[in-house]
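Morning. Coffee machine broken again, so started the prediction first thing and wrote up yesterday's gels while waiting. Chain of 376 residues, entered below exactly as on the submission form.
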Amino acid sequence: MRAEYDCYAITAPGIEPATARELAALGLEAAAVEPGGVAFSAGAAGLYAANLELRTASRVLVRVGSFHASAFHELERRARRLPWGRFLASGATPDFRVTARKSKLYHQDAVAERLSRLVGSGRERAGEGGSGFSQLFLVRFFRDECTISADSSGELLHRRGYRLDSGTAPLRETLAAAMLLESGWDGQSPLADPFCGSGTILIEAALIARRIAPGLARAFAFERWPELDARAWDRVREAARARVLERAPGSILGADRDGNALAATGGNAERAGVAKDLELRRATMSAFEPPGPSGHIVTNPPYGVRVGERAKLRGLYARFGQIVRTRCPGWQVTMLSPRRELEHATGLPFESRLLTTNGGIRVRLVTAGVRAGGTA
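Came back before lunch.
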């Protein structure tokens, strides 16, 4: 029997449209785009491809079931009917993460305990021992409606496996990918990041340029499901491997004044298998030189969140804008901005593309073109 799944890709608020476009590129139509995620339907191959290929999502969930429950006896009776065996391999331990709003069953730990006992007791009666593998289920109560979903991803999808050295203010991989996808960069023209830090934007750019699926070097929770279609999974993975390019088509340049940050970038790039695609320079913003007559600057400049840093930071952004206008005519600039005053300091005609958060700070992704002749 061919498996069909009701799926939900969890993503950061503000990034949902980018995730919906990624799904469309995979041939998976979004059924609903809402704050925090995108709902879609998929067969087995589509579910596997979403986990393997999505660059902007943090998890892919699969609906196990939904029902009304305003008392524990209702929860137990209706949960017992759900097809737990589709998602729990022999010896796997269920792990329940519960949220509840405007519901009579509001005690999250009590709900998790009842479900663990119900699902676990059935498995114990079958004589199954522990395997050390835990399957996460997300349980959501809202107005006494209970929705239970199985996590098909396992480790969060932004954990690609390459970033051991993250620096002092790491940018999440999924947000870096969203910046690149929203910038309009084609994966072939030159790309530069003059504030590269530990290199997340650069590495994600190299993965995109070489068509390397972000999940190609990791494992997923669905690989342990009893109903795994091993042949379909092999086909999806092999198709992704066959698309990989030997080298990035265009130059990818990263610069930073911090030598330790550049060392972290180099180590992360080696683990990601894209070190040969990056050019790294230790340089201040004032020494930045673009690697071509046109291309894209995609960057995450400092935010200056500590008291007393704002005036100094405005000067940095003003210098950044001056250098870009003077040295990068014909380039497109995309950056994360924590405050409009910093955007204005650059003198560039930024337009907002999306609003999200980075490290708990509300930021806008903004883009601007630099006209020939050094004017914005």
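The chain has a mean pLDDT of 91. Going to sketch it on the whiteboard this afternoon.
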